[in-house]
Amino acid sequence: MLWQHKNQKDWSALPGAQLPTSIFGAPVLASINTAFWKEVNNSAPLNRAILDKAHALFGSHHQKFTVMLTDNGLVAYIGSSDYNTDRLYAKGDTAAPVASGKGAPLNDVSVRLTGPAAVDTLRTFLDRWRAHPESKGLTLTGENYTPVNSASNQGTVQAQLSHTYAKDYPFLGAVRSAADTHENICRTAKNYLYFEDQYMIGTPGLKSILRDKLTSNADIVVVAVMAPLSVVGDLPWLEERRSEFWEPLVTAYPRQVMLFEMLAPDGTDTGPGAYLHNKMTIADDTVVTIGSVTSAVARIPMTPN
User: Closest Cα to residue 304, out of 136, 125, 37, 109?
Assistant: First the structure.
């Protein structure tokens, strides 16, 4: 399933209106996914691809994961990395099929899951696939995969998948388990919270939780690493939104809150690797979240993550 990101509708926001196909850069941006969609559907009789636009007007299909069946069982990779040229090539690299921007290749992180967590990832895909009208009548190989219940796939690490879906995109009710997960981690942390995120603009709910946590626990430390302003160009008023969230916390708790921007190995804020695209939270060396939820915070239920 690939993001179509054009010709979108949101009747709750703009009743009766339909946006033109040029919105959000389409068809320039959409042409990449459209080309791959055609390639998958034409490459073999059993292959199937769907272009998905089941998201709110100012949202996106933002999930990033891969599930595969190997000789050793089901394996899933979840993270913040898109299948895109700027994850592989630096700006100006002549080997790149499409030009990359400043800070590329982007700094990403992913997690490899096996056992029951991999099955949960498969079910996440199946839920969205089955909700799409183009999936009707299509049978998926491996749709009913059941792992062998043996000691070899029973690890000692607990894993939980969380999600973000806007109301009616594609399910009847909004889903904000990803937001709840991040808030609960921050609410229960005792020693430190470490965030990595490209935007790092937060939400009112998270700001309140961090303020209460810093007030009640003088020993807790909050460290946030974000992409430099010089390489992030797709979010309006980024500097102001970051300042609005973080400045009151830094001012009130200067010993406990530390903010950093990512630099490239060459020491610049625009060189290869400077664009921090990770979406990761670590608390107390006991819990970590890795995925596609941007701002390393409790994201409002607009986009599927």
Answer: 125
How far apart CA 210 and CA 204 sit, in angstroms, is: 10
d(CA 232, CA 107): 13
Q: Strand 280-283 to strand 192-197: parallel, antiparallel, or no bridges (unpaired)?
A: antiparallel
3-state secondary structure of 49: coil
Contacts of 95 (CB under 8 A, 6+ apart): 89
Tell me the C-alpha distance between 205 and 187, whole Å.
11
DSSP, collapsed to helix, strand or coil, labels residue 127 as helix
Enter the pTM of the model.
0.85
**C-alpha span between 295 and 199 (Å, rounded):** 5
Tally the C-alpha atoms within 13 A of residue 47's C-alpha that lie toward its C-beta: 10
Note whether 225 and 193 are within 8 A (CB): no
Q: What is the pLDDT of residues 181-222, one digit of tens each?
A: 999 999 999 999 999 999 999 989 999 999 999 999 999 999
